[in-house]
Write a structure and sequence with these properties.
Length: about 160
Amino acid sequence: MAYEFHYRKMVEFHETDMAGIVHFSNYFRYMESAEHAFYRSLGLTVHCTRDGKIVSFPRGKVECRYSQVLRYEDLVDIHLLVREKRKKVIRYEFIFSRVLGEQLEEVARGAMTVICATQENPHGPFKSIPIPDFIDRWIEIAPEEAGAPASIQKT
């Protein structure tokens, strides 16, 4: 069972604004990329077909607090933590850190709440469902003390 995952990426030029700073909207894309990589690391996917029905995780709430900027070619570590898992809902916390050699410098924190849902067909409405066992058994809630590694410099 897993409750955390680290995803690293280099900031691309197209992700920055005219000031050379990562545009705020890209943090939401980074969260989604980290979530998808987390599922792939478990041999799963966030969107699949099971028993003829689509199983997916639409977003219920997403937020991000910024404390520093990221710039073009910064290496960023996105630390995903599973903070809550209920019958139909998972809430993740994301800690964004600039990688500076062996050190991490926190630059932002985000959270995303997803709802397990199904669709009868690709164009039909979503209906919330309990998280299927084939997914639920792989994901657990992070211990309360889990979070930023000791090497992160808080700002």
